[in-house]
Amino acid sequence: MRPLLARISLDALTHNLEIARRHAGSARILSVVKASAYGHGLARAARALVASDGFAVLNIDEAVQLRQMGIEQPILMLEGPFDAEEMAACAEFNLMPVLHSPHQLEWLGQAGKPLQVFVKINSGMNRLGFALADFETVVERVNAHPQVAEVALMTHFATADEDFGIDWQWQRFLEKALPTGLPISAANSAAILRYPETHRDWVRAGIMLYGASPFTDVSAAEVGLRPAMTLQSRIIALQSLKPGEAVGYGLTYMADEAVRVGIVACGYADGYPRHAPTGTPVLVNGRRTRTLGRVSMDMLAVDLTRLPDAGIGSPVVLWGEGMPVEDVARAAGTISYELLCALAPRVALHEE
Predict the structure, then answer these.
(1) pLDDT-derived band of residue 203, with 50, 70 and 90 as boundaries?
(2) What pLDDT is recorded for position 112?
């Protein structure tokens, strides 16, 4: 059997939820489990996160799966319904749709019963949400709709994880939202950890639940998070390079000294980034080393020159315990979210 697998720690998921709760204070926590719970498996993550006050998903299929599992907590549809039939499904399965566009307001009449809804306001990210200029009109219309039982207000921060901060969005949103007295949801993982003034009524915990930091300047370990996924494999072959010899497609790495190379059973078809350059960190036998050359579909090469004890069968951690996924993402010029979500279906998930 191919040695590549992803170990999923349920204890780490539960632990990270507690870290989120500690920071969130009295705010209720919506655990974001879209994209197969960031690659960790929706059902598996939901079981570990059962103490959440609610869940947030992308689509009806995810929401229905949670309901069929017996999840009774509120479920937020982050992009709302995509057609009138899905608005009806929100009523059938007792879901909370996000309303972000006028056409969704038209579909409210299809709901079979009054719904709890979240009205999304565009405070500056310019992705989804009603314009601030239309705030009063939209909120009044939603509040008065016979198919609406409760209304909450939400927005999404574009730079909560960066030095630019959130004040430029938060103040303009709060100026409109606060006088209504309606519940507010604004804080994502970065704001949960860094901006307690944004916690209010509901927070939306995402990447932090999976043990990765939303920040480039603060590690997950520094805020007490534990990696929930460890992608691991083994060395399946050895090569010895002489100065001037290369390894892999395109000859992108050429040795300038004698180099001992290990070939690892993991490649871009498994979700490891093809664009990860030479020097991307990896653990072999528990020691940090680097990748060499271009990542192939099913394999990648690592430097064993200074790891004389490593050989065929030596364990390799691509990311997870001992190898923060943020470090790998940074070296590859991407973010931890992408690496976790891109894990391929052919990679076996083993929960522990």
Answers:
(1) very high
(2) 87
Dig out the tokens for 141 from the structure. Answer: 């219309």
CA dihedral sign, ordered 262, 264, 267, 271:
negative
In this predicted model, what pLDDT tens digit does every residue of 112-152 receive, in sequence order? Answer: 899 999 999 999 999 999 999 999 999 999 999 999 999 99
Q: Say how many residues make up the chain.
A: 352
Domains in the chain: boundaries: 10-213, 229-351
Q: Please give the class, per CATH, of domain 229-351.
A: mainly beta
Q: What radius of gyration do the chain's Cα atoms show?
A: 23
Percent pLDDT > 90 in the chain is 99
- The CA distance from 338 to 43, in Å, is 20
- Nearest of 48, 39, 90 to residue 69 by alpha carbon: 48
Query: Tokens for 100?
Result: 């972000």
> Alpha-carbon distance 32 to 58, whole Å?
9
Which residues on adjacent β-strands are paired with residue 315? 234
Confidence (pTM): 0.96
Asked if 307 contacts 273 with a C-beta cutoff of 8 angstroms, the reply is no
- The DSSP secondary-structure symbol of 197 reads G
Going from the C-alpha of 141 to that of each of 41, 78, 104, 137, 181, the distances in angstroms are: 38, 20, 12, 6, 16
* Residues belonging to the active site: 34, 249
**CATH code, 10-213:** 3.20.20.10
Q: How many CB atoms lie within 10 A of CB 31?
A: 27
Give the rounded distance of the alpha carbon of 213 from its chain centre.
10
